[in-house]
Amino acid sequence: MKKPADNNYPINELSRERWSPRAFADKPxxxxxxxxxxxxxxxSPSAINEQPxxxxxxxxxxxxxxxxxxxxxxWNKQWADxxxxxxxxxxxxxxxxxxxxxxxxxxxxxxxxxHITLEATNLGLFTHQMGGFxxxxxxxxxxxxxxxxxxxxxxxxxxGDPDTLPEEMKERELASRERKELKELIFSxxxxxxxxxx
Amino acid sequence: MKKPADNNYPINELSRERWSPRAFADKPxxxxxxxxxxxxxxxSPSAINEQPxxxxxxxxxxxxxxxxxxxxxxWNKQWADxxxxxxxxxxxxxxxxxxxxxxxxxxxxxxxxxHITLEATNLGLFTHQMGGFxxxxxxxxxxxxxxxxxxxxxxxxxxGDPDTLPEEMKERELASRERKELKELIFSxxxxxxxxxx
Lengths: 198, 198
Prior knowledge:
Oligomer: homodimer
Number of strands of chain A: 5
CATH superfamily of chain A: NADH Oxidase
Order of helices and strands of chain A: HHEHHEHEHEHHE
Largest sheet of chain A: 4 strands, antiparallel
CATH architecture of chain A: 3-Layer(aba) Sandwich
Radius of gyration of chain A: 18 Å
């Protein structure tokens, strides 16, 4: 299913076509495609090239998938059970060089995950990131040490059938994508003052 | 100048070709291109579609550019003075719906900025994100209110001539792009245990 952005200015096809469905198909992701997704993340930029991203990859049927699924809140469990891949991104909170706090670890992990979403679109795959999971449970189940923080879980797979979703989710699935206008987001001179360009 | 990723698995051309130079050309960015960059950010995903990103756009010659430049640390001032656009991303720290802390604001702002980097590549432009700037100065100069946090500044422009850079920067500019191996980043079973796939 396609839900291209209703964009006012031209943007690249990957950004335009990417969206976050819940209706995943019960169909595996090829290993070579999983590799390309993570490879795209690998080449993402980061503050002083720290690369603060670590990933826990669960493939449906393996214990990591089960544990990742177990960390999700109920709402997400309702739909993510079909996703063939679950991927948790874990941020390294301190710089490797000097142990000082890396204030950019979450920001940079977000960038890496964005590269995954767009590579997924490139491969005809879909992603849906979730903040609704238990950090505590993840930390316990995967023995995540101090200094590393679980940030998000991503479902990855092929598109399925929206009719498999509960009614409330199906409505959202079929709704158009909504965004604020650029004039609400882009300021110049001072914060809150719209840029004259938009 | 091209510095494609030395990737082990195929990735899309935008992720492959994107890199962060310092040698910008003294040449403006067309307004329609600036619009496309911000439009790509606009369609980025975010937790409960909060869209916590706000941007301050400086165009060389205007007061916002001067103020953004003024927030940079000395090292960045040495090269960013040629960039025709400076863009600060400011994260909204609380959810608009209920005022509660949005733990994903930095992560989601990172995603939006990643979309800008890739749209820039799509347009033949280059970006370089900087963590080296003064949050305090930015807050003061742009009167950024409580609840909003300056996260990063991005230089945007056309590629220039590496010979214009100081020697130390020129070396970095010409060096190949380095990344950790996937086996250092992708775990399964427990944190730190390499995935058998990589």
